[in-house]
Write a structure and sequence with these properties.
alpha/beta; TIM Barrel; 10-stranded mixed β-sheet; 10 strands; globular; binds iron/sulfur cluster
Length: about 290
C-alpha cells in the first residue's frame, strides 16, 4: 500500500499518508449499504441486491450520478478494518439479500479479497466496477467473486482521455472483461436469480452512439454470445461536471439509443435493455 499499484493508474503513492487518483487512503471506506431493487432483474430479484457502495473511484467520470460518494472530498462514509468489512458482508447476507454487490470496489480490491476470505459468504458476490481493473487484482479475486458486472465505457482512447483521463482504458477494459469471462465461463441461474456469470454494462452517452455500436461489435466478436449478458443503459442525465463538456450536456436522443439497441440485437447479444423513461435521477440512491 505504500506504493499503490492496486489499479491500472499505478499512482505509486503512499496511501497511508496521502491520496492517489481514487481519492482514498489505505482504510476501506463504505458510503452506504442498502437492499437495492433497481438493478438488473436477475440480481435484484424479489429479495433485493445487497448493495455496498464504496467511497472513491479510479475513473472519476465528469457525469457520474454517484459523484457525491465517488468524487467527494468530504468525509462521507465510514472506515472499516478488514475484520469489520467481513462482518459487514455477513450482516448483508443476514439481511436476506439475494447477493452482495460490491459497487466501485477497485481501489479497495486487496482488502475486499482478504475480507471475503474471512467471511465465507454463501450467497453470490458481485464485483460491480468501471472496467478499469488490473489483471493481477482480478486473478487475486478468482474464486471469491461469482458474478462480474463491469462497465465497458469507451472503445476509443480519445473518449477515454476526455472523460476519465485514461488513454489506456479501452485496452485495459478489454483485457479485464476477457479475464472476468475466463473466470465465470457461463451464466448460471437458479430460477430468476443469477448465481454465476458476467454482465457487461454500457451507458449510452450523447453524441457517441457509433462508439457504443463498436462496443457491441467487439463484445459479439470476442465473447461467446451465450455465455454473458449485455445491459444497455439509457439513464444518462447530465449531472455533476457534465456542463463542462458541451457535447454531453444533454440527455441522449431516443434515436441514438435505438441505434445501439438495434446493433446489440443484430449482433445477437442477450441481456437487458433499459426503458427510456429511466433517464431521471429518481433511481439514484441518496447518499
Ligand atoms: S487504487 Fe487509487 S491510489 Fe492506487 S493506483 Fe489506483 S487510483 Fe492510484
Amino acid at each position: 500500500m505504500q506504493i499503490c499499484t492496486q489499479c491500472p493508474r499505478k499512482c505509486r503513492c503512499d496511501r497511508i499518508n496521502t491520496f492517489g487518483f481514487c481519492g482514498q487512503g489505505e482504510k476501506v471506506k463504505v458510503a452506504k449499504v442498502m437492499l437495492h431493487f433497481g438493478e438488473e432483474p436477475c440480481i435484484s430479484t424479489k429479495k433485493g441486491c445487497g448493495a455496498v457502495f464504496f467511497a472513491g473511484c479510479n475513473l472519476r467520470c465528469p457525469f457520474c450520478q454517484n459523484f457525491k460518494i465517488s468524487q467527494s472530498d468530504s468525509d462521507i462514509g465510514e472506515e472499516y478494518s478488514t475484520a469489520e468489512l467481513a462482518d459487514l458482508f455477513k450482516k448483508v447476507q443476514d439481511m436476506g439479500a439475494e447477493n452482495i454487490s460490491l459497487i466501485t470496489p477497485t481501489h479497495f480490491s486487496h482488502s475486499i479479497a482478504k475480507a471475503l476470505e474471512i467471511a465465507h459468504i454463501e450467497i453470490p458476490v458481485i464485483y460491480n466496477c468501471g472496467g478499469y481493473e488490473s489483471l493481477e487484482s482480478l486473478k487475486m479475486l478468482d474464486g471469491l467473486i461469482q458474478i462480474y458486472m463491469p462497465d465497458m465505457k469507451y472503445l476509443y482512447p480519445e473518449s477515454a482521455v476526455r472523460y476519465c483521463a485514461a488513454a489506456d482504458y479501452p485496452q485495459i477494459a478489454k483485457s479485464a472483461i476477457l479475464e472476468m469471462h475466463r473466470q465465470t465461463k457461463e451464466m448460471v441461474f437458479d430460477g430468476e436469480a443469477l448465481k454465476k456469470g458476467l454482465i457487461v454494462r454500457h451507458l449510452v452517452l450523447p453524441g457517441i452512439y457509433r462508439e457504443s455500436i463498436e462496443i457491441m461489435r467487439w463484445l459479439s466478436e470476442n465473447l461467446d454470445k451465450d455465455s454473458f449478458y449485455i445491459s444497455l443503459m439509457s439513464q444518462y442525465v447530465p449531472c455533476h461536471r457534465a456542463a463542462d463538456f458541451p457535447e454531453i450536456n444533454r440527455k441522449i436522443f431516443t434515436a441514438e439509443y435505438e441505434k445501439v439497441v438495434k446493433a446489440a440485437t443484430d449482433f445477437g447479444l442477450a441481456g437487458y435493455i433499459q426503458q427510456r423513461s429511466a433517464a431521471t435521477l429518481e433511481m439514484t440512491p441518496e447518499f
